Amino acid sequence: MEHFKIVMDDKSTKVGGQQRLTTPDGFVLPLDISNGLPYLRMRPPTDRELSNPNIPHVVLTYDTDWNSCVLDHLVNDMEKWANSVPNCNPEDEQRLFDLVGVLKNNNAVTSFKDSKLDETTDFFENFNCVLPTDELYKQHH
Question: Which of 9, 12, 107, 121 is the most exposed place for a label (fewest CB within 10 A)?
């Protein structure tokens, strides 16, 4: 579709995408995202719809066989490619993970301001987990 100049925004609106296809003629078609994959709702047109001159026929692809290699491109010069990428990395203190992927700080619990959470945490920190198993063993043998 992109080779046919369709602008594909198949990123979910939940992460800033527009979830749509835009044709060179300016038609905009919504996409559904299901299980992480984009879907275009389609059905065969009725004979009545096909014969109606007021309903546009929207063309999405060429009428020839698809050559899957037409957009292939290998990055041969990694340095040139890396220099072309804008530097939009967050500052080190903003990153949740360090450079090897280890979570740097878990603020989810430490910044939570709820007295019930504090009470529950205190309970489990002070709870004596040692169970008297000596007598339990003797009772079963």
Answer: 107
